[in-house]
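Internal tracking record. Fields below are filled automatically when a chain is submitted to the structure queue. Please do not edit lines marked as system-generated. If the sequence contains nonstandard residues, flag them in the REMARKS field before resubmitting.
Queue: standard
Priority: normal
Entity type: single polypeptide chain
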Amino acid sequence: MINQLEQMLTAYDVWLDRQPLAANTRSAYRLQVHQFGAYLAQRPPAIDDPLHQPFAGDYAVRDYKTYLKTERKAKPASVNLALAAIDHFYQFLGRARPNVQREDLPEQSPRALKSAEQKAFLRAAERTPSVRNRALAHLFFYSGLRLGECAALNVDDTRLSARKGIVIIRSGKGDTYREVPLNTQVREALINWLKDRSTRFPEFSEPALFLSLKGKRLSSRAIDLVLRQLGTDTHLELSAHVLRHTCLTNLIRRGNDLVLVAEVAGHKRLETTRRYSLPSLEDRERAMEGLHVDY
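SYSTEM-GENERATED OUTPUT FOLLOWS
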């Protein structure tokens, strides 16, 4: 059995070198498969062959998974890497992948800008000569919109005055409708952009809120590039997604109810939250107005 295993591992190495894989992946698979081979070699002799009999292979790999977790203290991502490599080894053998469940990876909170980074971003937005880009920066930072939602906005989706303002998302994720209140900083930035827009494009009938230099609707990709460039100017790696989660994180850290934050974000609420009354527009207005960051 051991000699046969060694021959298979040697043949796998030769086969692996011919596979269209990245060098790092090839190296990782080689290491993981040889470690699995060493584990099989030290197991007591069994009647069933784990390399050729389906159920025996399933049981051997499940036992190996337990060994990795309990004896090697491997983390979920490392266990899953080992299982992926073993799947590849069984592919080489011409066998079906072992029936072994992957580990659930711990969920990580989306990245949000730290306090100093938020100030740096807002200062970069203040310095930009583009009225449009400044409006985009404030809109994402203070409203938590998704990238596609912003790109889909039309001029008539905004309701602006000196004291109040909302932006209407007519078809958010899951085709949902919501109204997001805008604080003072966003209202001022959008009002300035709308003035600049009407001056630059007086003859255009394009309904989009944000326009390119040619007067066409600004695409999601172009909007994201604007925000990333503002980050680059101040040595920050960011995106529209990071700014969205910065806004939502700030709302939560200021003690706002999670149901209110879910309503602002356009998240689907869990069934257990449906028994609570939804936050009113006035509640959301107060929460968004309280998002102001001094910079």
